[in-house]
């Protein structure tokens, strides 16, 4: 049993994550403009930027979905009830007393149960709601069939709006949670370098050494 | 293979480049005889004589154009009557009361000076029916010196010496001159802006008074005023859009094509409509992602709404308020007065009070009023009962919010006060013009007499009591289209205080950031932020970063 720096986020996953960050930022900013919350940029360009960023994000998502399923990483995002209460208890109380988190990051299980549940909800409900409604919204000209369509469009628009605010709430919580534990820098670093310190059993260590040595950072020579 | 294709492309570009100067040279060469027509009217013997009246010219025209009189006499230009198929109402200048000079009945030779005929001096009878009563020259004269006398029931000013000043004014308000009828007759051609403009630009008694989007600025507009009619633009004339069949024109202010879903039609198909779509198609925006979004608008928003951001452009103001109730105020010696308190952008002082007509407001570059419109206009006809406690709509624009036949259109909403029969609660006819009568308002300044005479002239029952009501009248705005680069910006409508606030039946992002769902989302975000701040604060107070310490 030893702590080793393991490449938990391969290059594609990091690229996926940061592209998503950029595009979601653009989408939130322009989306708020289009719905009239701010007027920092003109309306027309905001609509165009929103549309282009959304289309780019859709392409990224198509690649990511393909990647998740072909590599089996999708299992990382399956929620489990086990351990959820303990994790919830930790963030509600334990964290203030300086307790150790009840959960250790494992190679095949990067997320704690709460995280996994959150991502499950996002990926299965919120993201589909936002991009399906977005595509329906955008393609109005192709399905519009007269005055009845206005009601449909109003519903679609509100689904899009609500989902967007849910994503915004997620982003706030997500960024905040990076400040817990080892702190913000330590949390962000793996998503930049790809490597994170993981407890490996000797068997796992041996497996990595033998089969995918590129995923293990070589041990520093003893001084 | 590739090289050859490149060569071909280059060659065609080179040919294209050299072709332009070639064309330019061609146009500088002497004109092909009879260019634009196969007849030179100055060569017709029948037109080489001194005509003594308009009808005499018409007779000469009809000797070749045998069916023209019949065609014109069946057009709205001559009948002044229009049966609106959408409402069943019979409209037209001979039937309606408007919010400007009111009514034709009782004021004939003045109002019928713009009639496309000669000698209609009694509204109680239909227009004169003899062939020679048609005025060919008013539409076809190309000599530029034909005119109609302001008080001559359609006849031109005539005199001994053509071109010399004569008594009276023309229908555009200029001092009259003796028209040279032979010169006019020999000049005839297809109508230009000058032909249509001399009547249509001066409706309501002066330049741009009535429509707001039809003024003398359109004789030679700059490109900002009218992209279609400007010489720097498409240099079009009225009849390029208002297409014609047997002297009947497409386009109507009573029943118009408010939502043209046919567009260009089939190749070669002739479209009898004056709609934008008949040239620009139903998907007019091309070439970018933005154009797809803009085309999304065309089912709900008329082209005019975005492309005519303001009317009364080009330096000619329009009347926006006309209060007849104050008319009749005279000075100490009993003379009519005039006040001029509006300065037009060209420096011209416009009247804001006239003893004959009352008080006025004017506007230049006016923001339109917007409403759902299916193209049908319903009038408050003189025989209909009105509610004098409310603003009376002289005409209503029909259409339903989000109706499949309707779109959001721009209008000039004329506001004012005008007379009504207070005993019968009906709009009142008034006899205003009549220099020799003792009842005409403009000479006697007595409303009681003027209304009584007007009602009598129209054959309408009168209670003997009159009053004044507030009125609105709507004028669809469709001319003075700006260049695309000067079309209305999105934010004019997509904003909380946007132009279309209050119009139901359309999804318009940006107009209501604090809708119920918007608020719900904002509360969710706010609670998350508060939760995060609270959580962070507790961690700070506890002095622990949490975990792995």
UniProtKB/TrEMBL annotation, chain A:
It is a multi-pass membrane protein. Coiled coil: none annotated. GO terms for biological process: respiratory electron transport chain. Keywords: Cell membrane, Electron transport, Heme, Iron, Membrane, Metal-binding, Transmembrane, Transmembrane helix, Transport. It comes from the Bacteria. The keyword Iron applies. Residues 8-194 form the Cytochrome b561 bacterial/Ni-hydrogenase domain. GO terms for molecular function: electron transfer activity; heme binding; iron ion binding. GO terms for cellular component: plasma membrane. The chain crosses the membrane at residues 21-41, 47-70, 116-139, 159-179. It is found in: Cell membrane. This is Ni,Fe-hydrogenase I cytochrome b subunit. It comes from Celeribacter neptunius. The lineage of its organism: Bacteria, Pseudomonadati, Pseudomonadota, Alphaproteobacteria, Rhodobacterales.
TrEMBL record, chain B:
This is Octaheme c-type cytochrome, tetrathionate reductase family. It comes from Celeribacter neptunius. Pfam families: Cytochrome_C554, Cytochrome_cB. GO terms for molecular function: electron transfer activity; heme binding; metal ion binding; oxidoreductase activity. InterPro entries: Cyt_c-552/4, Cyt_c-like_dom, Multihaem_cyt_sf, Multiheme_Cytochr_ET, Octahem_Cyt_c. Residues 1-24 form the signal peptide. PANTHER family: CYTOCHROME C-TYPE PROTEIN NRFB (PTHR35038:SF5), DISSIMILATORY SULFITE REDUCTASE SIRA (PTHR35038). Keywords: Heme, Iron, Metal-binding, Signal. Residues 263-358 form the Cytochrome c domain. The lineage of its organism: Bacteria, Pseudomonadati, Pseudomonadota, Alphaproteobacteria, Rhodobacterales. The keyword Nucleus does not apply.
